[in-house]
């Protein structure tokens, strides 16, 4: 029985027909349908809406909010003068140099087994006594300087431009440390992975690096968040605000830091998920095309 040869136009028709009747194209993408359904259902929840509102409030506070307290030009000049007076402490610098020299002089006398040898034991004891006296004087001057700094900060208030600038600097400093930790750990992992000489395909290697980077960035940023929280407590104490302002600023600071960190992590995880989705879609389409080609070859036999 003679079989009709399939020409190029017929092959294209069969190929398009196979793709058109594929279940994924007829019913829509299951992943997108699931995500849309979950998002629609979640948005109907009051808790989700409240969470979104708190997230927006936190991002606004940490990145865009102006200071609630306005300072006059005279107040700013007075504050800067108080800071200069607190930082300019000739007595403290002089005491610090004396302490450093005494510390070096005492360490210089600590020879081998000096605790059991005379006169080295007596010499070290006498020099350590002088070091302790100078250290006590230095601590007293340092406490006096900190009091002046606290007085200057209390003068402008924690809700001023200086307070807002201070909390943002502390957060971004902790944030950068967390990112640096993640980058270093990922780099070390890549070096150890290459040196281990594992014979794996390129896709497995890339996926391994991606998931390790995600774990390191998650750990680093969450760690930086806790570091910022402890730093925030000391910062609030240095401004000596009233109890209500202290609690409100602490809550907003934690909310802002958590919102920014969550935004970054969600963005990173979203990019990775989008990349994996695109790759999986391309693989599925290639499978459909291979199935169509197999069908065409089968028809030609």
TrEMBL record:
Keywords of this protein's UniProt record, alphabetized? Membrane, Transmembrane, Transmembrane helix
Where does the sequence pass through the membrane?
50-68, 206-239, 245-272
* Protein name, per record: Uncharacterized protein AlNc14C131G6958
According to the entry, what is the taxonomic lineage of the organism? Eukaryota, Sar, Stramenopiles, Oomycota, Peronosporomycetes
